[in-house]
Design brief:
- The complex is a heterodimer of chains A (about 325) and B (about 270).
- With about 325 residues, chain A is α/β, with parallel strands linked by helices.
- Chain A is about 30% helix and about 25% strand.
- By secondary structure, chain B is α/β, with parallel strands linked by helices.
- Chain B has a single domain (about 5-220), classed as Rossmann fold (3-Layer(aba) Sandwich), CATH 3.40.50.
- Classes of the chains: A alpha/beta (about 325), B alpha/beta (about 270).
- Strand 13 (about 190-200) of chain A pairs antiparallel with strand 11 (about 170-175) of chain B, so a sheet runs across the interface.
């Protein structure tokens, strides 16, 4: 029997546009494959040419398995899984990663069930154990605990990983594109995706922002919330929010940072009026510098900060904004 | 009578999670003494089912897999308006991961709640937060699934239009029954339990079923049937500088900006 070998990544695309998370995962797969002396592969489905698929080799893929068909440009779980599962059964990779995005979270469990293998969700890290088994780090109970999940016997070892956890990186290795036949009928496209609607982006995107200014329940009201927006604008950064602040309606759900929201890794993170539960901390812990502003000196968030300011955000933020304006104008 | 199935999960009441702790000797998570509560999103799933019941006269069957001491939380589903609960509970089912859980729940639905029009789940549980069980139940039942649902519309109770939130946008699906649906909190506002509901719940059937009655393949349930294992649990430790600044707003603002400048982030 063939040994299971190779680290694979499902490349997510939305209406033909490749999502960053797939590229991030490819660079991690590259790292793990190099450690183990094996290869990486990407799976790409959609209306793509061989040349499009070839671009994935620049991000660390040794092989790209391409299912080219315009019907696959729009996500359909059954159709996708009926192509991916037989390919995985034929090629026998040791691991398969997908983004912990809505599409990845919809597809991965179905594929894992078809393969009768293990799957861990919303991983915040992947590493190889001393025995060569993939260790998947998963937050539980709102992030208050971290669990190390393994899949000791079944293959492939499957995981979904939060976007933003790994950095994409370019690679100079040469890879090949393998075109696979698309054998699907109408029955495979159930349920039928009849429409895709984009959402309007109202704010500076959090992803990729160098500075993130984030507020929590302790901002107390919408008036104070505007101070965060002003500080972010002076710093050329984006505004984020915790779950309670989103629930208060001060910020849209799209900018929620934390385990069930976004993961950010800016150069500078400033959090104001945030208690610092793990749910939020897992979303910001890879920031270069963490600044915490809170009037409660006992706030848990101070334990994970680089610089903490004990004081009322309502007073500290305007002082910061003034001083910054002075610095930038002189 | 057409039937809609709602899968629910009793979880340790999130209001008491500060009482969770890791046994330093064994690395086992202790949750003793924390009362069970219905997973919040499961109430949204139940609300979708109850509205269909009101419109089309369907029966609402709740299924769950949990230890037997969770029945109090499951009564809440009956008090909201569900017609009956089937709880799969057996020592053989303990330690199940998502695959083994989904297999067991699918088998429970086959045995006790079939035929059905729809299976509805909450999109994610607050405790495990995997969001994996719904799609895997659908696999074992051999029906399509749609997760991350924010809108559920139907004219006739057969053809449904479902909106899936994919964060960057929305996908609109059309699907005819039977299928499985996993809903987010945006789908509705679950009704509150009232006194009449609580009284009615006392006489509604809540049946506990063991592994033998479910005719489960015992190699596919519980810890034995779970491909994944927990190798360890840890409380994340984050090492940072932790320099705390205090003083008048003007002073600390200046001091902080100097520090940030030194650190090279300004």
């Amino acid at each position: 029997m063939k040994e299971h070998e190779g680290f694979w990544v499902f490349i997510e695309q939305i209406e033909g546009k490749i999502s960053e998370v797939g590229l991030e995962l490819l660079s991690k797969a590259r790292e793990l494959a190099d450690q183990k002396g094996t290869y990486t592969a990407a799976i790409l489905l959609g209306d793509f040419s061989k040349e499009d698929a070839k671009k994935l080799t620049h991000y660390g893929a040794d092989k790209v398995f391409l299912f080219s068909d315009e019907r696959l440009n729009r996500y359909c779980c059954l159709a996708y899984s009926r192509l991916i599962t037989p390919l995985v059964e034929r090629e026998k990779p040791e691991a398969l990663f997908m983004g912990a995005t809505p599409l990845g979270a919809d597809l991965a469990p179905r594929v894992a069930a078809q393969l009768e293998t293990g799957l861990s969700a919303h991983c915040v890290d992947l590493r190889l154990g001393e025995d060569g088994i993939l260790e998947q780090i998963v937050p539980g109970f709102g992030g208050t605990m971290m669990a190390v999940i393994i899949c000791p016997e079944k293959r492939p070892q499957m995981a979904t990983v939060m976007p933003g956890v790994f950095k994409k990186s370019e690679s100079h290795k040469k890879g090949e594109v393998i075109e696979e036949e698309v054998t699907l009928s109408g029955e495979d496209f159930i349920p039928e995706a009849v429409e895709y609607r984009t959402k309007k982006q109202k704010t500076v995107p959090l992803e990729g922002a160098n500075v993130v200014v984030c507020g929590g329940y302790g901002m107390e009201n919408e008036e104070n919330w505007k101070l965060l927006e002003e500080l972010a604008s002076v710093l050329g950064g984006a505004v984020g929010a915790t779950r309670p602040a989103v629930d208060e309606g001060w910020a849209p759900e799209e900018v929620m940072i934390g385990q069930s929201g976004k993961i950010v890794r800016p150069k500078l993170y400033i959090g104001a009026g945030i208690s610092g539960v793990m749910h939020h901390v897992v979303g910001i812990q890879d920031s270069d510098i963490i600044v915490v502003i809170n009037k409660d000196p006992g706030a848990q968030f101070f334990e994970v900060c680089d610089f903490g300011v004990v004081g009322d955000a309502e007073k500290i933020l305007p002082a910061l904004i003034e001083k910054l304006k002075e610095r930038f104008s002189s | 009578m057409p039937n809609v199935v709602v899968c629910v999960k009793p979880i340790p009441d999130p209001r008491h999670w500060d009482r969770l702790f890791l046994d330093p000797e064994t690395g086992v998570l202790k949750r003793a003494g924390i009362p069970p509560a219905l997973n919040p999103l499961d109430k949204n799933a139940l609300e979708v089912a109850l509205q269909l019941k009101e419109r089309f006269g369907w029966e609402v069957t709740v299924v769950s897999m949990a230890p037997p001491d969770t029945t109090k939380a499951l009564r809440e589903a009956l008090a909201m308006g569900a017609d009956r609960v089937y709880l799969a509970s057996d020592k053989a089912l303990a330690g199940a991961d998502t695959l083994a859980t989904a297999y067991t729940l699918a088998q429970l639905i086959r045995k006790k709640a079939s035929p059905f029009h729809l299976v509805i789940c909450g999109n994610i549980s607050l405790d495990g937060s995997t969001s994996q069980v719904p799609a895997q139940i659908a696999h074992y039942l051999g029906i399509p699934h749609i997760t991350h649902a924010t809108h559920v519309e139907t004219e006739d109770g057969q053809l449904f239009t479902i909106t899936m939130n994919i964060k960057k946008g929305e996908l609109v699906f059309r699907c005819t029954t039977p299928f499985l649906l996993a809903v987010t909190k945006d789908v509705n506002l679950p009704r509150l339990v009232n006194v009449m509901g609580i009284i009615a719940a006392e006489t509604k059937p809540l049946e506990v079923i063991d592994a033998r009655e479910l005719e489960l393949d015992l190699d596919k349930v519980g810890l034995k049937g779970s491909p994944t294992r927990v190798r360890g649990l840890f409380i994340p430790e984050i090492k940072r500088r932790r320099e705390i600044l205090t003083g008048e707003p003007e002073e600390v603002a200046e001091e902080l900006l100097n520090k940030l400048h030194e650190a090279g982030v300004l």
